[in-house]
Design goal:
The chain is mostly helical. It has eight helices and two strands; from the N terminus they run H-E-E-H-H-H-H-H-H-H.
Length: about 190
């Protein structure tokens, strides 16, 4: 019976990775910074919340990285793997901890836990891409100096508002999908 459960969990983890990839690729709203806003962050958060920090992080990281590779953003793929895996890991860990800490308080619901965990996790995503884009700008300039760092900071800062919007949309969509996913017995059990 345990082997059947493990197989089911691995299959669902792979399915969540595929959903994260597809959600990232299906609707792309281009930004002036040559990136795009997408719906994938909702699946990234839900990967961490449903599958837990470790498997959710792997599913989110792999799915999001594949979306970058398939969409022509190969230079972002390694960072996307780390950033999205970290985002799901943070969301999954904080969601569980908040539910555990406030289990006796009726005022702290799973939705409140999701909003708090999602906000912290998406903050990590915004900072992660900001730092990586600074690195890319310095790499493109061919030098790692104070001047290229300053130029990288100013060019990378333009992407922050778009990443914040993407994170906010991800939290809202995950809040809308959570009650639907909770109706699935295995998903509900894995969230506990």
């Amino acid at each position: 019976m345990k082997k059947e459960k493990d197989t089911k969990f691995i299959v669902i983890s792979a399915l969540m990775a595929a959903f994260a990839c597809v959600a990232t690729m299906v609707i792309k709203i281009p930004t002036p910074t040559f990136g795009y806003i997408h719906l994938g962050d909702a699946l990234v958060l839900l990967c961490g919340i449903i599958l837990g920090p470790l498997y959710g992080g792997l599913a989110a990281g792999i799915g999001s990285m594949l979306a970058d590779l398939f969409s022509g953003y190969a230079s972002f793929a390694p960072a996307t793997f780390v950033i999205k895996a970290g985002t799901a890991l943070i969301a999954g860990f904080l969601f569980r901890e908040l539910r555990r800490i406030f289990s006796g308080h009726k005022s702290i619901s799973r939705y409140t836990a999701l909003m708090i965990a999602g906000a912290v996790a998406e903050f990590f995503m915004v900072i992660g891409y900001f730092v990586y884009e600074i690195f890319l700008a310095m790499l493109a300039a061919g030098a790692f100096t104070g001047t290229t760092f300053a130029a990288g900071v100013s060019s990378s800062a333009t992407g922050i508002p778009f990443n914040i919007v993407q994170g906010f949309v991800g939290i809202v969509i995950s809040l809308l999908l959570l009650p639907i996913l909770e109706k699935i017995p295995d998903a509900r059990k894995w969230m506990e």
